[in-house]
């Protein structure tokens, strides 16, 4: 399942540099996560790095992008090959 940044985002810029897939970009007015690139850090880290650094706890599972760990790993492998 890809992640989603909610409206409580303060655009602090903590999440963007820690994303191993460059899935997070500055939007107007909050940051956004590209679900086609988000693997919840599967393949790169043990847990989503953006969630760890977010001071507002505004990064949640995206209900429109349910994926298994295997699917997330396959997406990571494709993005990083």
Topology, please?
Elements: E1 3-5, E2 24-26, E3 31-33, H1 49-53, E4 59-61, H2 69-79
Antiparallel strand pairs: 1-4, 2-3
> What is the overall number of helices?
2
Major sheet: size, sense and barrel closure? 2 strands, antiparallel
What is the string of SSEs from the N terminus onward? EEEHEH
Q: Using only CA atoms, what is the Rg?
A: 12 Å
Judged by helices, strands and strand pairing, the structural class is: alpha+beta
Range of strand content: 5-15%
Structure description:
The chain is of the alpha+beta class. The protein has a single domain (3-79), classed as Alpha-Beta Plaits. Helix content is 20%, strand content 15%. It has two helices and four strands. The strands form two sheets. A two-stranded antiparallel sheet has the order 1-4. It has a two-stranded antiparallel sheet with strand order 2-3. A hairpin with a 4-residue loop joins strand 2 and strand 3. The protein is globular, with a radius of gyration of 12 Å. The mean pLDDT is 96.
List keywords for this structure.
81 residues, 2 helices, two-stranded antiparallel ribbon, Alpha-Beta Plaits, alpha+beta
């Amino acid at each position: 399942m890809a992640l989603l940044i909610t409206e409580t985002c303060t655009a602090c810029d903590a999440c963007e540099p820690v994303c191993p897939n460059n899935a997070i970009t500055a939007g107007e007015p909050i940051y956004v996560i590209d679900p086609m690139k988000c693997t919840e850090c599967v393949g790169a880290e043990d847990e989503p790095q953006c969630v760890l650094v977010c001071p507002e706890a505004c990064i949640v599972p995206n209900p429109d992008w349910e994926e298994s760990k295997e699917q997330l790993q396959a997406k990571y492998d494709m993005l990083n090959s």
